[in-house]
């Protein structure tokens, strides 16, 4: 599949048309839309949200979304939602080794397994974090009415078709699919990805505060697709995520029949290699919040529903400083994954495709080897290279699912994880 064309800028007011003249001029919903199309609005926020936060997109399509059959329940034993569907976790650090992609045919939906959950989708708070292992392209479309989806590929490229156009996403990039938008994902072979399903406020760029006007993720590096209507606009199977359950129907028309669109609610991809890392150039280790790419705020200032944090390659130059992350107990729950390379606080045991969970106030930090090396190595400027780890942080405690603790995921659970700190001896010398 050839590389699609893109529009640039997070939160920008875009306009794009696959056929010249498909966009109406000067009005959103004229009495008759151009070229015999139908006007349809997709809202990402309430109509009366402040202008700076309001997100919506007008689509001009061959048939509107209402042209669909009745939905029937669709069984899916492993896609869970909300704290009520999680298991009571122990107050222990948890780590999972990579779980292999199965040989049995599975598309993106079939291959999804929920790892941790919190919050309540009906209250529009919290999140679900999933692991997807698939080897087959989707023939059906999916619409998630419960939350937006942040997809973090770890193995294999994703060829994504959406109502607004196409995106090509590879490991090192992330994909943001807005709530309520139809999408379909094709793969080239065995594929693994992490997914954050955000039930709360839409992801946005964090405020920069004293950093100033530049730094972290630049808005212009987020890429949205140009309009590209599907040539096959016939009947299509659609799976809808609604109320924490899956539903399916056979629609009379493909949802990918949008000929033109304009607005600021769009699917986007972002290359984490373009993240402008901010760090100390004197001494001490800054808080990991300086690595925040996107944030979903909560109703409490400074305490996020979810933060997406990327630990990208960067120079370490601090003097007289323990450079890896320090030992800590966080009020926020932390879920981590490793896309590629090595994480500096866990040189052994934390592998690409693996996961870890350090819940609210659960102690964690560098393992014994990382501590010994960082405490004794002569300090000189060096670059952490060929690495990409990420963290999804939430104010709500994360509850692992039965799959993650007892099922196939439970088989990958590192039962000896806590042993990595066993060599930290008492070296106090009064």
In short:
It is globular, with a radius of gyration of 22 Å. With 430 residues, the protein is mainly β. The protein contains 3 helices and 28 strands.
Describe the 3D structure.
The structure is a single chain. The protein has 430 residues and is mainly beta. The chain folds into 2 domains: 196 residues, Jelly Rolls (Sandwich); 147 residues, Jelly Rolls. The chain contains 3 helices and 28 strands. The chain has a 9-stranded antiparallel sheet with strand order 1-16-20-13-10-15-8-7-28. The model has no long low-confidence stretch (mean pLDDT 95).
Radius of gyration computed on alpha carbons: 22 Å
pLDDT < 50 runs, ≥5 residues: none
CATH third-tier fold name of the largest domain: Jelly Rolls
The order of strands across the largest sheet is 1-16-20-13-10-15-8-7-28
CATH class of the largest domain: Mainly Beta
Average pLDDT metric: 95
Number of helices: 3
Kindly state the percentage of residues in helix.
under 10%
Approximate strand percentage: 25-35%
Please supply descriptive tags for the structure shown above.
Jelly Rolls, 9-stranded antiparallel sheet, 7-stranded mixed sheet, 35% strand, globular
Topology (elements, then pairings):
Elements: E1 6-8, E2 14-17, E3 38-43, E4 56-61, E5 72-74, E6 94-96, E7 112-117, E8 127-134, E9 141-144, E10 148-155, E11 158-162, E12 165-169, E13 173-177, E14 182-187, E15 191-198, E16 222-225, E17 236-242, E18 245-251, E19 258-263, E20 268-271, E21 292-297, E22 304-311, E23 314-316, E24 333-340, E25 355-358, H1 368-376, E26 382-384, E27 388-394, E28 399-400, H2 402-405, H3 408-411
Parallel strand pairs: 9-17
Antiparallel strand pairs: 1-16, 2-19, 3-4, 4-19, 5-18, 6-25, 7-8, 7-28, 8-15, 9-14, 10-13, 10-15, 11-12, 11-14, 13-20, 16-20, 17-18, 21-22, 22-27, 23-26, 24-25, 24-27
